[in-house]
Amino acid sequence: MLGEYRIEGRRAADISTSVERAVGAGLLAPGELLPPIRELAVQLDVNPNTVGAAYRILRDRGVIETAGRRGSRVRHRPASTSRELIRVEAPEGARDVSTGNPDPALLPPLAAALAAAAARSAERPVLYGEPAVDTELERMARDAFTADGVPEGPVAVTSGALDAMERALVAHLRPGDAVAVEDPGWGSLLDLVPALGLRPVPVRVDDDGPLPDDTDRALRQGARALVVTDRAQNPTGAAIGAARARELRAVLADHPGVLLIEDDHGHGIVDLPLCPLAGATDHWVVVRSAAKAYGPDLRLAVLTGDAVTVDRMRGRQRLGPGWVSHLLQDAVAHLTRSGAVDPAAVAASYGRRREALVAALRERGVTAYGRSGMNVWLPVPDETAAVARLLHAGWAVAPGARFRLASPPAVRLTVSPLAMDDIGPVADALASATGPVRAGHYGRYD
Q1: C-alpha distance across the termini of the chain, in Å
Q2: Which of 134, 139, 353, 426 is the most buried (most CB within 10 A)?
Q3: pLDDT tens digit sequence for 101-143
Q4: How far apart are CA 314 and CA 322, in angstroms?
Q5: Alpha-carbon span 434 to 49, nearest angstrom
Q6: Nearest by Cα to 180 from 217, 235, 125
Q7: Angle at CA 162, nearest 5°, toward 176 and 62?
Q8: Per residue in 408-446, pLDDT tens?
Q9: In sequence order, what are the residues at sequence separation of 6 or more whose Cβ sits closer than 8 angstroms to the Cβ of residue 346?
Q10: Could you tell me if 260 and 226 are in contact, meaning their C-beta atoms sit under 8 angstroms apart?
Q11: Is the peptide bond before 194 cis (omega within 30 degrees of 0)?
């Protein structure tokens, strides 16, 4: 246990810092079993309550996980280790299809929108005490939510989708609580959950989104929140259709106390209709980021939800950043009002490339997935070998480990950098670099 490393400290803060420093330096490996509380207390000549407090700090920071009598261990992926570090640097001459970024050619120019926002600010500067949400953006967001069948609720603005998810989770959950998450799923969310001291519970997905039986199992096992992606799921492209939405709403109806968070980042770039789950539980939030349609650097998302949840999120926001810049809110409102993006054209552009790649792989005997959005998910027998072979062939793909908890190996490709002439060559490289995988739920072996 711990090898040669000795935990030090007399106070809980010092003990936790000693452990966290060792984890960051690689002196304590993932999965390393920490000493029992009483044993470490004797070694350090401190009260067991002090060690217990240190372990709670480490758990809340996402450094360790506790399992009752089975003890406390360094997390398999400590919160200080971002999944973004699991990446492949594309060498000179290689094509990078790993990033998950939108196609810059499909993003609107921002100059006019930002200039208009600056001009309005010059006429009427936003000062302390102003409403947190721009009136026009709030109306536009509310109208769009209503048109898509999302229940009535107050509107708030956050600095992106992940900021909204963090605020929603903190509004209802405490460290140690479990959160049901899609597996495979968005790597940033899979990092966020343990960073908040919460426990991720994997839920398998297929082309229609989370599997109802898995979702029900996770909730019956005590998950206090469920995070789902409505459309353009990252990394698989899954989209919740009407039939799956009915099944999931039926599951959620048996768990009214669960916090439901819906990520609709595909709004504006996907032509599939939204089939919302909102309202199936007492507490819910639907989040729409501007990143994919208007540009990641805008750092803005709009959300709606039940009054209690949104009020808690707004209250905590007031005590931190206060509000999201009205210059950005005005710019997004300008882009929306001017019709700067044609959702149908954007969806068609991504769809042509994504569907052509999936079809080309199918012709070569390779199963891949990508129902919506800008990504294609390809199960592989050996993830490391596949990534290395593709890199040697001149293609940098994203390792599936960035997006997985319990699901099997895979790689993700983003079609944004691809032209139609690239489809054949990349499909050839993928077919050559990967072996056959018997299809299940995104590569699960039956």
Answers
A1: 37
A2: 134
A3: 999 999 999 999 999 999 999 999 999 999 999 999 999 999 9
A4: 9
A5: 52
A6: 217
A7: 30
A8: 999 999 999 999 999 999 999 999 998 655 445 564 433
A9: 106, 268, 269, 293
A10: yes
A11: no
Query: CA-to-CA distance for 237 and 253, rounded, in angstroms?
Result: 26
Contact 201, 221 (CB under 8 A): yes
The tokens of 373 are what? 């959005």
Neighbour-count burial of 319, counting CB atoms closer than 10 A to its CB (0-12 exposed, 13-18 middle, 19+ buried) = exposed
CB atoms within 10 A of CB 54: 29
Work out the average pLDDT over 379-394. Answer: 92
Three-state secondary structure call for residue 384: helix
Give the Å distances, CA to CA, from 300 to 53, 133, 165, 432: 37, 12, 13, 41
Predicted TM-score (pTM) of the model is 0.84
Query: Alpha carbon of 381 to those of 280, 365, 387, 426, 433: distances in Å?
Result: 38, 14, 11, 18, 10
| pLDDT tens string 147-190 | 999 999 999 999 999 999 999 999 999 988 999 999 999 999 99
Higher pLDDT, 76 or 264: 264
The two tokens of residue 148 are: 């898509």
Q: How far apart are CA 45 and CA 83, in angstroms?
A: 37
